[in-house]
């Protein structure tokens, strides 16, 4: 394939590059710092170590989901099933580890494999059946929600007898080595996932095709590339990453909650857009997504610490999503 097609579309001109790249990241980082300062002033409890750890724990789950969503959004698609897929994989882990009694590593592999298979099905619906991503993943969201309830019998699955499972997210390898830094394993896993996916996006053929599909899918197809195969692979990879998120949230709660999951997809997508990934596809970074996930976690936690009513927390989250999408539209207009 021609290199000009394989590489992600880049804005022309130095000023435009600053506007769409470094400027957006700087704005996201500044927003994160402003939130930290504002909530610290508003509540003396906000900057406590235990609360900072709680924020990182929350960001680890949403951040992994956001990384998965980033892959799909860069291709110009959308995945509304990431939240329920996370729940579904947590239930699969629960069934395999508690009911079937497989060893812990096999249970983790089963959950990630179930996520990859679900993502592959969504990708096939989008690529082969030509169903719009919004509809295909909306249908998968409902299917996975129902399957989670059916497989679990509508009851939570507890991992109390699975030795070491709760330590996957809540333990701290770093804290054992450096007691002054009790960073949870879930946060470490988030950054490992982020580094691996960033490498895939920037250094591999799959990453180049991911950007190329979002920039000009028709041009890629006309160049002789099997775009359906690459799109299915990207959705499958995103599904596998959702499986990791399922393991993290199940470990954090020490249970698989089959009714959990709805709403997580909105926060994940918001984190992606806040981090600078364009909803029109063809542009995005993993480090920007991680910053966006931290912003969402800080915002949610800060509102809770300041005793803002739950219903108003939902209102604020919805407003943030609208503002993030509006900001993305402005960036696209300036980039033309």
Describe this structure in words.
By secondary structure, this protein is mostly helical. The chain has a single domain, classed as Orthogonal Bundle (ABC transporter involved in vitamin B12 uptake, BtuC). 75% of the residues lie in helices and 1% in strands. The protein is built from 14 helices and 2 strands; from the N terminus they run H-H-H-H-H-H-E-H-H-H-H-H-E-H-H-H. Strands 1-2 form a two-stranded antiparallel sheet. Helix 2 runs parallel beside helix 13. The radius of gyration is 20 Å and the shape is globular.
Write the layout of secondary structure elements.
Blueprint: H1 3-6, H2 14-42, H3 49-74, H4 82-100, H5 104-127, H6 133-152, E1 157-158, H7 167-170, H8 173-177, H9 185-203, H10 205-222, H11 227-253, E2 255-256, H12 264-274, H13 286-305, H14 310-335
Antiparallel strand pairs: 1-2
Helix pairs in contact: 2-13, 3-9, 3-10, 3-11, 3-12, 3-13, 4-5, 4-6, 4-11, 5-6, 5-11, 9-10, 10-11, 12-13, 12-14
């Amino acid at each position: 394939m021609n290199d000009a097609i394989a590489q992600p579309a880049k804005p022309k001109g130095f000023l435009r590059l600053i506007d769409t790249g470094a400027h957006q990241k700087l704005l996201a980082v500044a927003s994160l710092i402003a939130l930290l300062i504002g909530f610290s002033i508003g509540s003396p409890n906000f900057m406590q170590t235990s609360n900072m750890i709680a924020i990182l724990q929350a960001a680890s789950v949403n951040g992994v989901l956001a990384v998965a969503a980033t892959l799909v959004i860069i291709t110009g698609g959308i995945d509304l099933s990431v939240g329920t897929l996370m729940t579904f994989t947590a239930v699969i882990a629960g069934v395999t580890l508690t009911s079937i009694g497989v060893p812990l590593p096999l249970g983790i592999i089963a959950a990630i494999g179930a996520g990859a298979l679900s993502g592959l099905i969504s990708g096939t619906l989008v690529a082969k059946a030509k169903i719009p991503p919004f509809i295909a993943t909306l249908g998968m969201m409902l299917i996975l929600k129902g399957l989670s309830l059916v497989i679990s019998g509508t009851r939570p699955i507890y991992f109390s007898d699975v030795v070491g499972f709760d330590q996957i997210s809540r333990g701290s390898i770093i804290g054992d080595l450096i007691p002054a830094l009790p960073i949870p394993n879930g946060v470490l896993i988030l950054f490992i996932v982020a580094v691996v996916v960033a490498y895939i996006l920037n250094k591999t053929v799959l990453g180049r095709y991911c950007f190329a599909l979002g920039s000009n899918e028709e041009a890629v197809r006309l160049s002789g590339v099997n775009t359906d195969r690459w799109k299915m692979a990207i959705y499958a990879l995103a599904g596998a990453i959702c499986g990791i998120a399922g393991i993290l949230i199940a470990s954090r709660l020490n249970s698989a909650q089959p009714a959990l999951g709805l709403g997580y997809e909105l926060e994940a997508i918001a984190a992606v857009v806040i981090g600078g990934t364009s909803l029109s596809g063809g542009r995005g970074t993993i480090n920007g997504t991680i910053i966006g996930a931290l912003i969402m976690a800080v915002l949610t936690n800060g509102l809770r610490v300041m005793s803002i009513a739950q219903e108003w927390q939902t209102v604020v989250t919805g407003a943030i999503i609208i503002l993030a999408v509006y900001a993305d539209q402005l960036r696209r207009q300036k980039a033309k």
